[in-house]
Amino acid sequence: MQVSIETLNQMGQDDFVGVLGSIFEETPSIAEQVWDERPFVDVLDLHRKMVDIVEHMPLSKQIELINVHPELGSQSKMAAASVQEQASVGFDQISQPMYERIKGLNQTYRQKFGLTFVMAIKGLTRGRVLADFEKRLNNSRDDEIKTALSEIFKIARFRLCDLVD
Question: Which candidate in 33, 120, 164, 165 could, as Cys together with 2 as Cys, close a disulfide (CB 3.0–4.6 Å)?
Answer without folding.
Answer: 165
